[in-house]
Specification:
alpha/beta; Rossmann fold; 3 domains; 7-stranded mixed β-sheet; globular; Thump-like; methyltransferase; PG_1098_Fer
Length: about 400
Amino acid sequence: MNSFILTNEVQQFINDNLNSDIHKILLKKSPFSELSTKELVEQIESKIKAKQKIPTWFKTDNIIYPNKLNLSQTSSELTAEYKTSLVDGNSLIDLTGGFGVDSFAFSKKVTNVIHVEKNNELSALAKHNFNQLKITNIICIPNDGIPFLKKSKDLFDWIYIDPSRRDKNNKKVYYLSDCEPNIVEHIDLLFSKSNHILIKTGPLLDLNTGLKQLNNVKEIHIIAIGNDVKEVLWILKKNYTKEALIKTVNFKNDIEQKFEFKISQEKVTTSTYSLPKTYLYEPNASILKSGAFNLVGKHYNLEKLHPNSHLYTSNDLIEFPGRVFKILQEMDYSKKSFKKMGIIKANISTRNFPDSVATIRKKLKLKDGGKTYLMFTTNKNQNLITLYCHQVFI
C-alpha cells in the first residue's frame, strides 16, 4: 500500500481526473515521483467504479482502492446490505475478507467482526479504509482464512465465506469443489466453529449441483440488480435436515421484487398453456435462475406460451416480478412480415427460439433501440412467432 496516495495533491489529482480520458493519462509521465502512472490510473479507474457500486466509499475522503479486478470481485454495497438481514449475534468471521465491503455491512448488525484476508496488501487497504469509515468493531487479520480458523479456539455466531471462483491459473471455475477455498472439503471444520454458515457463490452455479454438494442448507437467496443476477447466497444451519427455502429478489430502482418457494412445490405444479393474449410477462433474472417456471405462472394466474419458453400471458394486466409487455400484434418470422410493418429499429429478445439475436438482426436488417420490443419465441403449437410489443410500466 503506497501511503503517498493519501497526500492532498494526489487526492486532488484523482478527483480532478474522474472524467478524463484514462488512455491519455497512461501515455503521460506521472506528475508524482513517488507514484507511477499505473498506480494513479488504478486509483482513478477504481474510484469511478466505486461511485455506483460502493457509494459510501466514493463519498468518503482518503479511501485507497485496489485495482479494478479486485474491485470487480467484491460485493456491491446493495448486496452487502442485503446480507445484513440474514445474520445477527455477537460474532462473525469473514474468512475471505477481500476489500471489506461485506465485513463493513456485517459490522452494522453484528457486535464483533473479524476480517481475514490472505493478501497482505488488501488486508492493509481494508484496515485503512475501515478507519476512514469510522468503523471500530472490525479486526483485520492478514492470514489465510482456513488455516486461521483451524488454529482459532473461538466459536462464532456466523461464518461468512466467499470462495474465489478462479483456479491457480486464474481461470474461472464453476463447481464449489473447484473454488478456493474448497468449502465441500472443509465443511466439517466450519461447523466445528459455528452453527451458522453463510456462503456467497457466483450466479453460474447450478442450484441442484450446489444442493448435492452441500448439506444442511436452510435457505438459498438469489440476488439480482436491474435484472442481472449478481450472487447466490447459501445459509447453512448445523444439523438442519428440512427442505431448503429458495428466495429470489430483484432490485429494480427502489423496488424489491420478491418470490420464494421450495423445489418440491415446483415439481408438483403444472402449467396451463395458451396462445398469446393481450399481455406478455417475462420473469426477472432471479426467478429464471431459480427454476420456478411453473410456480410463478400458477401464483400469478398466468398461462405459459410453451413448456420451454418461460413466457406467460393474460388478458388482464397484473403487477408481476419481471418485464411486462402489451402485445400489439403477432407476426410471422419472415422478411415479408417486417417489410410490411415497416419496422427498421427495435429491442429484440428471444426465448426458446432457434436463431440468436445477432442472426435475427442480420436476417431482418433491424437496428437496435427505440420503444418497440420484439419477442421471438415458440408457441404451444410449436410454431415460431414474433410478438410486436410495447413495454408496460406498473
